[in-house]
Amino acid sequence: MRDLRVPVVADMRDLKPARSSLYSLRKSAAKCARFFPMTMLAAVVAGLGGLRGQGPQNTLPVSYARAIWRVSDGLPEDTVQALVQAPDGRLWIGSTGGLATFDGAHIRNFALPQPISANSAFSLAISHDGTLWAGTEGGGLLHISGSAIKVLFTESGLTDGFVRTLCEDSRGQLWVGTDNGLFRLKGNDRLERVDDTAAIPSMAVHSIMEDRDGRLWVGGSKLVAIRRDGSSQPYTLPGAYSATRVKKILQAADGTVWVGTVGGLAKLVDGHFERVPPIRATVRSLLQTNDGSLWIGTIGDGLWILREGQLTKVNEPGLLPSTTILSILEDNYGQVWIGTQVGLLRLSSTPVTIVPLPDPRDSDFETISGDSSGKIFVAARNLFTIVGGVAARARLGIPDVTVRNVFTAQDGTLWVGTDGSGVYRIHNGQVTHYSAPEQLTNNFIRAFLESHHREMWIATDEGVSVLTSRGATKFTEASGLAYFSTRCLVEDREGIIWVGTDRGLSAIKDGAFLQNDTTRALAHEKVWSILEDRQGALWFGTRDHGLFRLQSGSLQQYTVDQGLTSNSIYQLLQGADGTFWITGPNVIASAPERDMNAPWDASKDASKRLSVAVYGMPYGAEGAQLYGGREPAGYIAPDGSVWFPTNQGVAHVIPRETSVSGPSPRVALESVEEDGRVLSPTTGLTVPANVSRLIFNFSAVYLRPQNQLHFRYMLESFDTTWISSTSTEKATYTNLRPGHYRFRVQAYDSSRPQAVDEVSIDLQQTSHFYQMLWFYTLCALLLGAIGLLTYRMRVRQLHGRFAAVMEERSRLAREMHDTIIQSCTGVSALLEAIAITAESKPEVNRELLTLARQQTRQTIETARQVVWNIRHTTENDVDVVAAIRDYTVQIAREDVRFTVEVEGPQEVCLPASTAHELLMTVREAVYNALQHSGSDRIGVTLRQQGSDLEVAIRDFGTGVPEPILTHPIDGHYGIIGMRERMEKVDGTFHITSAPGSGTTVQVQLPLHGRKRGGLWA
């Protein structure tokens, strides 16, 4: 770093600005917040790490983190002419391209109505009611309240459209300065001209200011002070006429009136103005910050700062994007915003400065340590020392080797670890060299530790060595070390040596390795930093999974979910005041001891967060990367300052009060997207059932660096815990179930997690018709009905199967009764007759035997026909008339006369199955008549009656008693079988009989499309 010492060009010790709040306009701003002090450097604002310099003896160096926004970041145009902060914390930006708002993360252009003749916003003012007044260059005066815009121009009394300045006095009166006159607002939409009178001369007005006495200072082509009674007092400014035109007026906290003119800066002394050398450029903007410093912006000559009597020009190359400073604002966090010709600049105070190294050679490692005298050692291939804020090459009397780290023992001995050359011990000017394989496990050194026994433990790339007066002891994986690649060493109060490696943690006590719950829990972690804090708790910083705290046998984890800025821990230190210092790949942070050691149950305190302060890198070191993995990667000096190695040099942090002044972030729900359709976030939002993707877009008004800003959100009735969000400002949900939800989003500063701002929105996800209760009820009823129907069909099927089985049994019974049994009965009767006449009538016996054989063959054929009918479904038509005639021939007897009469067609064809049932019925009736009636005459009559075939079988015998007709005797199933056969073929069966009158069996069979006489009936 260059320590630039710029000579003081003007001795202003008589000015001594006070440090109280400014009066008038600054008084109203001071009511909003109390800013943290921004101690300004009096001699120079410079340094690779930010604004830094050398001034009077009572001045301390200060660094600033810088951020710039241009058109590419959303500005309407790069030229920023006016700045003002609204009550909600947003910035209003007036540029040559129009108006814009800025919440700290997003610049949003403010659309002006088409009739406005000019978009260039030159002046801005916030009214007491929070609305905005904007003066344009040629377009008149604008009043903006929410989304409503009112234009005041010639019809409102304004004679000139170029509005250069705006001021609302302590009584709420708005004053308007233009290129042609001074105006004040009358009512809400009328402007009254005040100058061009006997009391106030006509003038072009570029600046208006009310002082603590209530006088209104008006400057432009002239400078006058207007008293409340309407009288005015003119003032003469030093210099040529063209150089005295006023651009800015400011009254400091001590009452001094400052005037910026075309020719430079002037101040009011004893009733008249004196020029302030050496500023000769046009002073366009003036601001006194809350620490009493006067900031002076010029046209073409950059930025000047007056503090405690000394005037300093900020001339560090590259710090300011332009030498034309158009506007300056201090926000309610104490940050300074500067509008320039080529963009918007923010300067945020940071306690970090960067000490550059004279020859870092882009090292891939860097370690830092120190001794009790305050000397700082920096190892970055070469070895450097820092004394008085300046780094210089160190000479320790050792060979020219690459140094990795330096350790100072309790007796002052220096131990120097190298990159491949082992260790050098320097004591009282004598150098001792230790190397592998004699004393060390490896010559690449990563860490040192001096135990309470004065043993020197040395961690290397391939194990740990212990050097004592008795010799060297080595620990490797073979001897029990968790992993060969070691990173850090610590001895706790119990004398246990903890060794962090790239794959696990080892604990060594009295030369023996210990295995416990901690070593097992961290068996796969990359442990890069170990710390025993003031309370005796052990902390393990890992490369990937945050911090682990071991206290009273309990191991607890801290990650970004608990407030850490990163899960990658390079170095963990604790200062004398208890503050924990934590570094990661690109961040320096601190956390108070009360938070780090507070009892914490992650399952119960899911929303609890650590108070973590993040330290921004100063100008010139933006994006600096820190080093870790080799010890020490951080150092706390005896004076309490903290040092960390970075690729931009050594970061030096002078601790100060880390609490942040100003309001907490104000969160806002920007919009809700339903499958890409953007909606305004209104309460009671109803989401259609067909929406599958819901996105909540949110933001926060927070002008500080955004790495301190954190969001967390939750969709109640869906999420069970808060979801942290640091990289995105939206929450996405898909395929939500119907129901009521509440989306909540919170914003907070990481250093003040308890100061949370929250917004929420209720919404109702509607249901498809198939998700309605009535639909579920209907489906349940339908399923019940289907179940009942299925049950009934099953029962009916079972009944049908059972009936089919029973029908088949009945059919077989009928077939056996009407065919086989009857035939067997006939055969039996013939055999009995043969037996009776066996000796007396041989010829008769032969005839009877022949009949028996024929009857037997007929029975067998009938049985085969029955079996064939069972196995075959196809059938041919049968002429039932011919079949009945053939049957009567077969059973013809000498003692019985058979007759068959056919009335109508002589041929009636029926399907074989139907014909079979009819023939079996006729056969059974004829058989019964032969067996039981005793009649010598039996007649069969076939008659077609309409579409039915009627068959009657009549005998003239003894008849059948009525009881037998209705209740057949057990063992006699002829009548039952005949009736069942007819029912099977949709026919009817009727039997009539009387004792002595014979019996008539009548069956009626529908033909229904059957052929009759060769034709279908």
Features:
five-stranded mixed β-sheet, alpha+beta, Immunoglobulin-like
**CATH superfamily heading of one domain:** YVTN repeat-like/Quinoprotein amine dehydrogenase
CATH architecture of one domain: 7 Propeller
Which structural class fits the helix and strand makeup?
alpha+beta
The Rg value, from CA coordinates, equals 56 Å
Mean pLDDT: 85
Strand order of the largest sheet: 59-65-64-61-62
Which CATH first-tier class of one domain would you pick?
A: Mainly Beta
Question: Quick one: overall form?
Answer: elongated
- Report the sheet-strand fraction: 35-45%
Helix count, DSSP H or I runs of 4 or more residues: 9
End-to-end C-alpha gap: 124 Å
Uncertain segments: 1-61, 1009-1017
CATH topology call of one domain: Methylamine Dehydrogenase, Chain H
Largest sheet: 5 strands, mixed
Could you give the count of β-strands?
74
Helix content: 10-25%
Can you describe what's shown?
This protein has 1017 residues and is an alpha+beta fold. Among the domains are: 25-107 and 117-332, YVTN repeat-like/Quinoprotein amine dehydrogenase (Methylamine Dehydrogenase, Chain H), CATH 2.130.10; 666-771, Immunoglobulins (Immunoglobulin-like), CATH 2.60.40.10; 772-872; 876-1017, 2-Layer Sandwich (Heat Shock Protein 90). The strands form 19 sheets. Strands 59-65-64-61-62 form a 5-stranded mixed beta sheet, with no helix packed on it. Strands 67-69-70-72-71 form a 5-stranded mixed beta sheet. β30 and β31 form a beta hairpin. It is elongated and about 175 Å long.
